[in-house]
Write a structure and sequence with these properties.
Radius of gyration: 18 Å
Order of helices and strands: HEEEEEEEEHHHHHEE
Number of helices: 6
Strand content: 15-25%
Oligomer: single chain
Largest sheet: 4 strands, antiparallel
CATH architecture of the largest domain: Sandwich
Length: 206
């Protein structure tokens, strides 16, 4: 995703590989780990995109986050004795570095800089959760979508109007904000009329 390309990797790949991590390959739709499973590995994306999701009682998918190159997946649970609260599913073909929990904890002791990088990554995850909390606290569809796009655009150097191409599909935006896709499409068109965003060749410019 373009909005996250400048983010530092959670842990440098060279450190992971020297600590014994293995590359795992996943096709789009493959499950990396499932809700309720035990955290046994540290995962970091080398190539591709992964979504964290749940399903509500009606079977509707709720995407919690979309992760990409250099980002870790569910790493905070390696410090807790808790089961995964989400599923991790490959959105695209992925290569993921996987390191055993014991190897990960040893790495944390041996590489202070890597520990600091992971803390920064966890801080970003916490910030994202606060943003999502604000999104779900409002019932206004335009406010939800604007908060999501503000968060995505905050990673860009150029913050001028319409300089940012939203790297999500309408369905992904709906799943992230808890809206119906029809409501998302209708609201985006209304926001375009209000000159909050532009839609060009189906691409959303914010």
């Amino acid at each position: 995703m373009p909005w996250q390309r400048h983010l530092n990797m959670a842990i440098e790949e060279s450190i992971l590989k020297s600590s014994g991590s293995k590359i795992k390959h996943y096709n789009a739709g493959d499950v990396i780990f499932s809700e309720g499973g035990s955290p046994l590995y540290y995962y970091q994306i080398e190539v591709g995109e992964v979504k964290l999701n749940n399903y509500n009682e009606d079977g509707k998918e709720m995407i919690q986050r979309i992760l990409t190159k250099g980002q870790s997946i569910g790493e905070f649970l390696l410090f807790m004795n808790k089961a995964y609260p989400v599923n991790a599913v490959a959105l695209t073909e992925c290569r993921v570095l996987r390191l055993s929990k014991s190897g990960f904890l040893m790495l944390m002791d041996e590489y202070p800089d890597a520990k600091m990088d992971l803390i920064k990554s966890l801080s970003d995850s916490m910030y994202f959760k606060f943003v999502m909390g604000q999104i779900f606290s409002t019932q206004n569809p335009a406010t939800k979508l604007r908060a999501l796009m503000d968060y995505l655009k905050s990673f860009q150097n150029d913050i001028t109007p319409f300089s940012f191409q939203v790297p999500l599909t309408r369905q992904q935006m709906a799943n992230l904000t808890g809206l119906r896709v029809e409501t998302t499409i209708r609201t985006l068109k209304s926001m375009e009329k209000d000159e909050i965003l532009k839609i060009h060749n189906r691409k959303i410019l914010y």
